[in-house]
């Protein structure tokens, strides 16, 4: 308890010191008619707590390094241009704010990962309201803490994955807020690796070459109310625990290896209120355990939920399955998960006691879906008369599908989500 109080007091005084510095700092203006005509000259003159205000114009000054605690503000969206040669803006100080710039044409390299904005081992950095265009990496954070990335637009033009880095790339950081950004055309829209206790909220992530969002070894995070559309393989959450995924939309991820979301070797996570619409696979689960999946809408997907046999102790409840080719698929015969109280539009049972639950349990796993899981070319027979007859027979007299793969309380009407 003493250590916690000590840490809180220290954090209070650090924050107070930064606020006082900013309150007492001077304003340095950069522009053709100002004392300082270059950004680098103004930064050399600046002290902690100062505000550097950059007038509208085109600035191509190589790698610009901010190593002091300053506000760095653009007026009427000045352009910082890397000329395809350098990392444009490098932040290596605490308490920096970068706001109001167009940052474009960073260098491209795979060894040092140049970015439009890169933050090095810093905390309490805010990157807000910038337009980043045609950069290798857009915003890159490493070893950073308590930072905010807010209301930026990031657009890249690469046609192949190797030609682009990620829109927002975060590595070995914690307590980040990534909110309200729009990300288009990068390799991954947002990439988290070894990032903890962070939030991703209200971002629009479209048409990125690989994943809209990519999680690796990033525990105790949450992402809410994001919109993912037409990304190459959708979203991937891998080798992670204790992640909350709520109120997101995963839409239009089509292809042989595409899905709304891939859950690979994750555990103790919560997924609720999400919409999976028009994907080849809505949710793909591989080695994922102890998850609760509830109140989600899975509509118009090829496979709504593909849950591999190595998944266990997951609860799938109170979800809507509507208009999917296959509602559920698996590659094994042993069922170690619970399906209960979902709405299935293919359910043909009845409700004599009027409790809004079917009186007959529902087996959502079709025989043909199991055949296709083991032999993908069999999908060519999907609409044939014999396959329809096979599935009807299996529903009446289940014999080959797992007997305990069942929803004992199927809902008669869809949930209002």
Q: What structural class results from the helix and strand content?
A: mainly beta
* Separation of the first and last Cα atoms: 42 Å
Q: Give the fraction of residues assigned to helices.
A: 10-25%
Low-confidence stretches: 1-5
Oligomer: single chain
What is the CA-atom radius of gyration, in angstroms? 26 Å
Let me know the average pLDDT: 90
- The portion of residues forming beta strands comes to 35-45%
How would you write the strand order of the largest sheet?
A: 1-2-5-8-11-14-17-20-23-26-29-32-35-38
Number of helices: 4
Number-wise, the strands total: 39
Short précis:
By secondary structure, the protein is mainly beta.
